[in-house]
Amino acid sequence: MSDLAGKTERINDILEAFMGIPEEKCQGRDLLEQLIITILSQNTTDVNCFRAFETLAKRFRGEDGAVDWQGVADAPQADVADAIRVGGLGNQKSERIRNILQWVRREYGTYTIDPVCQMPPHDAIQRFTALKGIGVKTISIVLCFCCGTDIFPVDTHVNRICHRLGLVDEKASAEKTFWHMQDLVPPGNSFSLHLNMVRFGRRVCRARYPECGACPLTRECVWYAQNR
After folding, report:
1. Mutual angle of helices 46-59 and 31-40, in 10-degree steps
2. CB under 8 Å, gap of 24 or more: what pairs does 79-82 form?
3. Which of 17, 52, 185, 212 is deepest in the core (most CB within 10 A)?
4. Which residues are CB-contacts of 226 (< 8 A; sequence separation ≥ 6)?
5. Residue 106: which residues within 8 A CB-CB, separation 6 or more?
6. 97 burial level (CB within 10 Å; 0-12, 13-18, 19+)
């Protein structure tokens, strides 16, 4: 085990003791729904993301109560943009969502991306990131949360914490951090470490004014050693 892998394992153990072991995996949720929610979450808050999805689902609800993805794909872009406007970037996201839905229909013959769970993760990432609006974070969240794939998604919070802890270069992009961290996270702990880092980043290790006095990771933290 490398020094950084050992450090990552210690960090995971400390965060599980401090934050708890997450249990609320969304395995069983419709994968396409999760993909669209993750796209809506880009550059906005969780509250506005879910408000946008709820409005979209209400406006395009099918007879079975689920979202009518065919209706979304065929609707004028302005109608979709209006439905998701509360989430921000309505025009951009609506265009991308409609294009992605049309691609899904062509690729799989229906509005499902369930086969992604049977794909090798690298192949799934390569295929879906070729679509505008889907980055490594978006598809890795679907794989981790819905398929149960042992893959470690990296968002803004996770990237910031990995920088501060010295797990990656301080200038590494979220995508570079993603690829680097896959070999460091203890097997079977990707979901737990990801979600705990996200929560920890919101509550303690914030971008501005981090609560270092309440942090259990100061002994592992390069940023703390340099700035205390």
Report:
1. 130
2. 80/56
3. 52
4. none
5. none
6. buried
**What's at 99, amino acid-wise?**
N
Furthest-apart CA atoms within the chain: distance in Å = 59
- Residue that is written with structure tokens 């992604």 in the block: 116
Say how far apart CA 132 and CA 68 lie, in whole Å: 22
- Sequence spans of domains, the chain: 4-23+152-227, 31-146
61 bridge partner residues: 67
Tokens of 63: 């007879």
Q: Per DSSP, which regions of 131-186 are E strands?
A: none
pLDDT score recorded for residue 24: 63
- Write down the mean pLDDT value for the chain: 95
31, 146 Cβ separation under 8 angstroms: yes
8 Å CB contact between 185 and 7: no
- Domain covering 31-146, topology: Endonuclease III; domain 1 (1.10.340)
Contact assessment for residue 194 and residue 152, using Cβ atoms and an 8 Å cutoff: yes
Query: Looking at per-residue confidence, does 228 or 33 come out higher?
Result: 33
Residue 61 token pair? 């609800």
Instruction: Please check whether the domain covering 4-23+152-227 is classified as CATH 1.25.40.10.
Output: no
pLDDT band at residue 29 using 50, 70 and 90 as cut-offs: confident
**Rounded-to-integer distance, Cα 145 and Cα 166, Å:** 26
